[in-house]
Amino acid sequence: RIAIIGAGIAGAASAYYLASRGANHVILLDKERQPGTHSTGRNAAILRTAISDPVLHAMARESAAFYMNPPEGFSGPPLLNRTGLYLAATADAEEKLRSWITRDDCSMGGHEVATTEIHRRVPDLSSGLACAWSFPAEGVFDVHAILQGFLRGARAGGVDMRLGCSVDGIRAHEGRVKGLETHEGFLPVDAVLVATGGWAKVTPGDKKLELPIVPYRRHLLVTAPDPTLNSRGPAVWIGEDDFYFRPESGGMLMSACDTFPVKPEEGELSDSSVLETLGQKTRRWLPRLAESGAAHFWAGMRTFAPDERFVVGPDPRLEGLHWAAGLGGHGITCGAAVGNLAASWLYGPSPDHHCSKAFLPQRLLGIKASSSL
């Protein structure tokens, strides 16, 4: 009997892969009545597989292969709109970008292009870029289709979904998981997967079982609709200047990549002071849109371990306790691979996945969180 706490991308993908392996008696719980309410549904939805950490890049590659060629019946609409992605840098940041983006273990499917190519596709972009790489096969996720595909597959495989069911803690006895304390009563299980995003640190309900995982708030804004914008335009990420944008809902979605540690219950509360920084970066790179006004402005959480690698696998402190947490800004991009890895730890022999040991929780034991709240 396996319980998964959290029906966002990590929990849903884990349930899907457990079901595909033939695991029986899997229960997926979420305190919200709508799956994916928090980080899964509040992100920029950009597929970016190029990552400077080779281990994270390997997970992104694995997930991208799934999204680009999902199993038959997984989803009706395509999971990815391949509008293309550009990673770019100014002269000050060029050396740093080149130091990893040309490595095969950090980047796939990209090639260097003249910066004029980005200006051709995004005429509003100001000058100032020194180099750029194009990733034509990448672009924008249909997050809803991905999440529903995992949930639908999980249900078809017999997963018991309990939405609107909050978990108060894990009950243990003699070093083993015995079940969950929920608002509906005690739920006996043999294993628990914590996949609660920004709430992962506190989910076990026992300070002795907490890990140094910290949620950080990030804001996104979509400008008012502008008929001159190309809805098929690319996503553009300007590295060390910490600014990215892409078309969305007739306007331009953008972020100044703000990062502020928060308590999870405060992670989705918008802070209007961020608009000043975002305005400065918009005036620098997309000056025509600087006065467009905001159609939407919101915040979401990105949760990190101190080394910024994922936390996936069994916890040596309590038999039956597993984690799928700390996915940072790569939750959707790496969600399929994370779910596959988490499921392999929970059901069947120890995984032979080449990334499996890099994400084990034991590496974090005895480490304090990088930020205190």
Which terms would index this structure?
single chain; 373 residues; alpha+beta; FAD/NAD(P)-binding domain; D-Amino Acid Oxidase, Chain A, domain 2; nine-stranded mixed β-sheet; 7 helices
Question: Could you outline the blueprint of secondary structure elements for this entry?
Answer:
Layout: E1 2-5, H1 9-20, E2 26-30, H2 54-68, E3 80-81, E4 85-89, H3 91-101, E5 111-113, H4 115-121, E6 131-135, E7 140-141, H5 143-156, E8 160-163, E9 167-173, E10 176-182, E11 185-188, E12 191-194, E13 214-223, E14 235-238, E15 243-248, E16 251-255, E17 260-261, H6 274-285, E18 294-304, E19 311-314, E20 321-325, H7 331-346
Parallel strand pairs: 1-2, 1-12, 2-8, 4-14, 12-20
Antiparallel strand pairs: 3-7, 4-6, 5-6, 9-10, 10-11, 13-16, 13-17, 13-18, 14-15, 15-16, 19-20
Helix pairs in contact: 1-5, 1-7, 2-7
Describe this structure in words.
Helices cover about 25% and strands about 25% of the residues. It has helices at about 10-20, 55-70, 90-100, 115-120, 145-155, 275-285, 330-345; strands at about 1-5, 25-30, 80, 85-90, 110-115, 130-135, 140, 160-165, 165-175, 175-180, 185-190, 190-195, 215-225, 235-240, 245-250, 250-255, 260, 295-305, 310-315, 320-325. It is built from 7 helices and 20 strands. The chain is globular and about 65 Å long. Helix 2 packs across helix 7 (about 330-345). The strands form 4 sheets. Strands 4, 5, 6, 13, 14, 15, 16, 17 and 18 form a 9-stranded mixed β-sheet that branches. Strands 8-2-1-12-20-19 form a 6-stranded mixed β-sheet, covered by helices on one side. It has a 3-stranded antiparallel β-sheet with strand order 9-10-11, with no helix packed on it. It is an alpha+beta fold and about 375 residues long. A hairpin with a 2-residue loop joins strand 15 and strand 16 (about 250-255). It has 2 domains: about 1-45 and about 145-215 and about 305-365, FAD/NAD(P)-binding domain, CATH 3.50.50.60; about 85-135 and about 215-300, D-Amino Acid Oxidase, subunit A, domain 2 (D-Amino Acid Oxidase, Chain A, domain 2).
